[in-house]
Design a protein that fits this description.
Length: 256
């Protein structure tokens, strides 16, 4: 998929956008394109939040660092993700954003998005769905702390599969997984040794094939069942159904 259509693809999971809205998003995402190298910070905790960022390609993460240097990854940021739509109310960022791979992203002034949302109610709805889904994912990651290591890793793999598939970045049952076992540990609250042991267990049970940073899930339903994963919190299908129902009711009302 062309990276200039990645935001429209992401938002189309929530609201069915028309060609004019696609064109507006294409213009918005072609301005102020930035690049960052792998394993570098894009923005650090304490810096001002004068823009939001749309990731076009590559993987990044939101993280905090403890005083002793330990890092906790709070979220993985994938192509099509906006970060952070709600930060215009903050004077400074309360976390850091780092590139895990080479990334391309667009910096967008908050007032541009605010104006777009004011002029285009359907786009506003899509942006709100995006933000609410990000909050829902954060709640699920908190819940993940109550799960076993096997379930934590499996839930992460399933979540990434559905999120990447939503923007056309899976290849059948496979997707690129460019993160290290240390980064998996930082995202799941485990030690790297525990992550390695868990990956071996998942391989031995035939649930995953992980080779050369490509994850192959032979049977996604089997993995979901094994780790008790439900994609409901991602709100992709539910949001689209809600949008269709709302539009249908509006059309009926207008025709009446």
């Amino acid at each position: 998929m062309a990276i200039d259509g990645i935001l429209a693809k992401r938002l189309d999971n929530f609201v069915s956008l028309d060609p004019d809205e696609h064109a507006l998003l294409a213009r918005l995402t072609s301005e102020r394109v930035r690049r960052s190298a792998a394993r570098t910070d894009i923005v650090r905790e304490g810096e001002p939040t004068h823009v939001l960022r749309l990731f076009l390609s590559g993987w990044a993460c939101r993280y905090r660092t403890l005083e002793d240097g330990r890092r906790q990854i709070l979220a993985f940021l994938l192509p099509g993700d906006l970060c952070d739509l709600n930060n215009y109310v903050l004077s400074e960022l309360d976390h850091s954003i780092g590139a895990l791979t080479p990334v391309q992203y667009v910096e967008i002034q908050h007032d541009r998005v605010a104006q777009l949302m004011a002029d285009r109610p359907r786009l506003a709805q899509a942006f709100w769905w995006h933000m609410l889904t990000s909050l829902s994912i954060q709640r699920e990651w908190t819940l993940n702390l109550s799960r076993s290591a096997f379930e934590r890793i499996g839930n992460l793999f399933c979540e990434l599969f559905f999120r990447l598939r939503a923007v056309g970045l899976t290849q059948g049952r496979r997707y690129d997984l460019p993160i290290t076992q240390i980064e998996m540990a930082e995202a799941t609250g485990l030690t790297p040794v525990h992550v390695n042991r868990t990956l071996q267990e998942m391989r031995s049970e035939g649930l995953i094939i992980l080779k050369e940073r490509v994850l192959d899930i032979p049977d996604i339903a089997a993995l979901q069942q094994a780790v008790l994963f439900s994609p409901t919190y991602l709100h992709l299908r539910l949001a689209a159904a809600s949008s269709s129902a709302t539009m249908g009711a509006r059309q009926v009302a207008e025709s009446g």
